[in-house]
Design a protein that fits this description.
Blueprint (H helix, E strand, L loop, with lengths): L1 E6 L3 H12 L4 E7 L2 H11 L3 E4 L8 H11 L4 E6 L4 H9 L4 E4 L4 H12 L4 E2 L1 H12 L2 H12 L4 H11 L4 H8 L3 H15 L4 H11 L10
Parallel strand pairs: 1-2, 1-3, 3-4, 4-5, 5-6
Helix pairs in contact: 2-3, 7-11, 8-10, 8-11, 9-10
GO molecular function, one term: DNA binding
Pfam family, one: Response_reg
InterPro entries: CheY-like_superfamily, NreC/VraR/RcsB-like_REC, Sig_transdc_resp-reg_C-effctor, Sig_transdc_resp-reg_receiver, Tscrpt_reg_LuxR_C, WalR-like
Length: 222
Amino acid sequence: MIKVLLADDETMIRAGVRAVLAVDPEIEVVAEAADGREAIRLALAHRPDVVLLDIRMPRMDGLAAVAELRRVAPGTAVVMLTTFGEDDYIARALGEGADGFLLKSGDPRELLAGIHAVAEGAACLSPRVARRVVSALADGRMTREASARERVTALTPRERDVLALLAAGLSNARIARRLHLVEGTVKAHVSSILNRLGAENRVQAAIIAHEAGLTAGAEPGG
């Protein structure tokens, strides 16, 4: 069972999201919060697997909340759920360590798939957000590609294999099956990769992998 904490200051929005999540028997909403501070408190009390955070909330907004969650509950996956798709929100959310970014106007199936993905250790971006990220990466691409390639040289060959599959969206369990490793070994590799790359989370590591050209031939599945 995937335990989810839902944080949004609008009661109707929470009810709608809760209704979407209720169709999945593997997802349980264990708590709801109306602001960022309450979300932090409830996350510490209920230890959810995934926190869905709205960006604009009173007292403490979602951007501040995700930064605090990364500090006090680093093992909890955080997905930003918002109506706002502007580039600055996306960049700030991912920079603070969010594991995913989904739009409230997206397909409900994206929400369910995203929760399962981050609960399994992968990352998730709605298609619209992914297009914005790719577009943003295109600006100054040559400089970033050179920097990414240099950072990737610090990885071992096996770590580069793991990073390529991570960037393709595979969870630790699926990477383990693909590379014929135990999942614990993959987790150790991922921790080492994040440390060597100076990445805060899997999303940032995946971006570096794409910039370094590591993802060619790494197809999800299996």
